[in-house]
Amino acid sequence: MSQVSESVEEYLETIYRLEKREASAKTSAIAREMNVKLGTVTNTIESLESQGLIQHVPYKGVRLTDKGERIALEVLRKHRLSERLLTDVLDMDWSEVHDAACRLEHGLTGELTRSIERTLGHPATCPHGNPIPSEAGRIEGEESVQLSSLKVHERAAISRISDERPEMLRYLASLGLIPGATVEVEERAPFDGPIMMKVMGASYALGRNVAATIWVKKRQNRAAEGRGDVVLVPQGH
């Protein structure tokens, strides 16, 4: 991986996450995700663009270049393997590992990263269900969609959570909205109102912005699912 600062790594990783979640990374969203001032983001964006790591389109946001994406995927690989190490080996709760992994990822060498991966048995995902990039920078494709896109009466199994903030993960876990859980949309309020859904026999209203952070695989039909809903509890939960 190209030698860049920890700050640049954090920016590229954040931009990658935003691109995958929202199609583009606006400066205001970057500032919010990184908890920094908008002026700081603006200055950093100019620097990243001059290094050929991003492309900035005024009023639309930024996108990673091929070079920037390669670095972002390497950082993301270290981050998600660190999260698995913290939950699987150190028994930390899945809602508490994101910040710790952010600190660990910058100190991992390629050799140490490979050693962690071997020790963990080459896991495919982080504790939140998000895919771990390969050493070559590839991510296995999956047919998942945002929960917010489901229609009324559609059923799906949660595959991953893209928002790894501790408070968000604790909230979703309290509702049973964790990887492996089956959900069914009961009602969609008009004008971008909340989505009413059922999980584990209980009904909850979920805001569209929250539902957009939950990725699911659609169920084909009830008969194919067998009897009952199977819920997989995340490691460390």
Structural account:
This protein is α+β, with helices and mostly antiparallel strands. It folds into two domains: 141 residues, Arc Repressor Mutant, subunit A; 81 residues, SH3 type barrels (Roll). The chain is 39% helix and 16% strand. It is built from eight helices and eight strands. The strands form two sheets. A six-stranded antiparallel sheet has the order 3-8-4-5-6-7. A two-stranded antiparallel ribbon has the order 1-2. β1 and β2 form a beta hairpin. The radius of gyration is 19 Å and the shape is globular. The two termini are 33 Å apart. About 5% of the residues have low confidence.
Question: Which key terms come to mind for this protein?
Answer:
about 240 residues; single chain; six-stranded antiparallel beta sheet; Arc Repressor Mutant, subunit A; 8 strands; alpha+beta; 2 domains; about 40% helix; SH3 type barrels; two-stranded antiparallel sheet; 8 helices
* CATH A-level architecture of the largest domain: Orthogonal Bundle
Largest sheet: 6 strands, antiparallel
Query: Which overall shape is indicated by the principal axes computed on the Cα atoms?
Result: globular
Helix and strand run? HHHEEHHHEEHEEEHE
How widely separated are the two ends?
Answer: 33 Å
Gyration radius from CA atoms, angstroms: 19 Å
In spatial order, strands of the major sheet run 3-8-4-5-6-7
Number of helices: 8
CATH superfamily of the largest domain: Winged helix-like DNA-binding domain superfamily/Winged helix DNA-binding domain
* Average of the residue pLDDT scores: 89
Oligomeric state of shown chains: single chain
What is the C-level CATH assignment of the largest domain?
A: Mainly Alpha
Counting structural domains, the number is 2
Number of strands: 8
Uncertain spans: 223-233
